[in-house]
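Q: What does the predicted 3D structure of Endonuclease/exonuclease/phosphatase family metal-dependent hydrolase look like?
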Amino acid sequence: MTTEPDRARLRVMTYNVKGLQLSRPDVVAVVRAAAPDVLGVQEPPRGPLGWCRTWKFAHDVGMRAVVNGRGARTTALLVARGRSVTGHAAVRLPNLSGRTGRGVAVATVDGIRFVVLHLSLVRDERAAHLSDLLVHHVPTTRTVVLGDLNEPPGGPAWTSLTSVLVDVDPMGDPTFSAIEPRLRIDAILRSPDLVSGTARVPSGQPAQVGSDHRPVVVDLQLLRAV
């Protein structure tokens, strides 16, 4: 029997899954336990069959891959069945460092725009990508940004994002590395017109060994647009 989704709230999760290379069953267990409505993925499987492996992962956690592969590159966006998706896109970012090619997954779910980031390890490239994204892809209303920022709070990427968005977990637990986390580099940020509950960073054996990051989970209260 299919469970009717809770229309009063939207559970949101961000998770760098390390290409599902460490322990795929544990990543699946972590996601299924959290039961998100929207899952922003960083480092989804890549390569010729990466899209297929991400599709299978989405199926195994009871979701659908709305943005998967192509221009999204190092990101993907999964949505629970029963949630309304009214638009989605994979945005390719320019490779300014000569290193990993990056992209952004964007979708509108139940009237809220979600943007999934996996920012560069190179500071100048992070800044350039984020500057463009904030202008063209991150509205200041009805918006949630999910991602691996590759820097701790107080860095320039965090400062740019929190100038227009609200960090849902400003005193949150660290997320990297997963076994003994010391750095908080994974984040969920929302526009000021949205309301969020208490965020959490899952713990326990599956979260320690599934990936090299731990995820962040938060519930959004769904409000009328203003």
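A (community wiki): The structure tokens above were generated from the sequence. The CA atoms of residues 25 and 116 lie 23 Å apart. The longest strand covers residues 9-16.
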